[in-house]
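ugh finaly. both done.
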Amino acid sequence: MDDSIYYKRTVVKELVPSQALGTERPVRVFLPPGYQELMSYPVIYCQDGEQFFNFGRIVTHMNRLIFDEDVHPAIIVGVDVDTATRTSEYAPEGSRFDAYCRFFAEELLPYIESKYSVRTEPTERILAGDSLGGTVSLHLALDYRSLFSNVLSLSGAFLQSTRDRLAREEDLSWLHLYMLIGLDEQEVRTERGTFDFVEANRRTKELLAARNCRLTYEEKPGKHLWGFWQNELPAAMKLFL
């Protein structure tokens, strides 16, 4: 098959108005090959939208899955973030965290659903994020469980505040979670300090398993980088689609 079909894409750029954030948020929307408004599609919502599209190559992966593996086409929504405010929006103790979660659940979803043929059941929405993007995705699912039940986490920053949040839950059998962690992530430098992400993910896995979460957990040699995550993304997407 001619490789060029993997790289053809329809990506619509949107500016989503937000009262919660007090500004517009740039969003990119990938429409799969043969997109028709008469059909409906599962949707993958990515934190760090620009990175998922450029470094994660999620659109090329989606095209390959559609053409080569007969995976059901999905719409992909990449929500961009300003690196200057990323931690304040994605970290549970961040000053903009609550506002960002409100924007995501109460403004972004209705906006996308009013313009595109996306499915609206929680089981047809997938939240995807790397590092702190995995963190905010998990918290969104916990706080808006009527909206989200699938989380794809690439080296999630599941630190103490997230583990405390999970410990308050009794039953997570409704939650479907994919967790990837690289075995070379024992000293990850972040704005908030240096952390052992392997240990953090293992402890999070125990909390989730004890609460009957539908969990796919993978540890592989890899660093806290897109070079590692990019290659693991297709299998993770396939799991949900």
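ok and the 2nd:
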Amino acid sequence: MFDNSALSIAAADAAGAEYVETDCRATADGDAVLFHDETLQRLLGDPRPVAEVTTAELARLFAAHGGLLTLAEALDAFPRLRFNVDVKARAAAEDVGRAVAPHGHRVLLTSFDDRNRHASLAAAVRADADVLPASSGGRNAIAMLRLASALRLRSWTRRILQGLDAVQIPERFGPLRVFAPSLVRAAHDSGVEVHVWTVNDPERMRALVAAGADGVVTDRADLAIRTLAPH
């Protein structure tokens, strides 16, 4: 079963997850599909970029590995789930915006590249979204927030966090501890949640939540639910 597959999302739903994290790239047809990598190499041993493969062909290749979903199909197929959508490629932004427009109340958009997120939000506006999706800041916003919060530059942190609903961060980046008390305080002071990725160890989940994390991104939804259910 591949990550981002229909079967993997169904398994998380069956385990009782309320939120799922997924990734979007555009196929050769411009469809936003749930797919993490830039190419098919890791999953299928095929060096072609996702952007050069049609949606129909990708669906055939995924058929034996849990099934391919477009973002629009996923949102329709799992109406109770809330989706955290990482927009991996600018080419996916237009279709992401169209797909999330009717579902803004249960979608959070993020991307390492803030331009992808902004483009998706703009597309949702053009698609007449009644409610815009929530937003999480990208790599540059997180780096600036880590620095500004460490220096206790409150006005700067407020500007960085303006318009954001969450920041999604690794616990560490090499030797640098990204998840730090100063960053958590700065985010919470602005009403912004802090989510930490990717955490698969129950003890780390408990420790991070105790230290102020509002959520963790994990490969083990079943384990996280058992570990964090009281929270």
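summary for the 2nd one i guess: The chain is about 40% helix and 20% strand.
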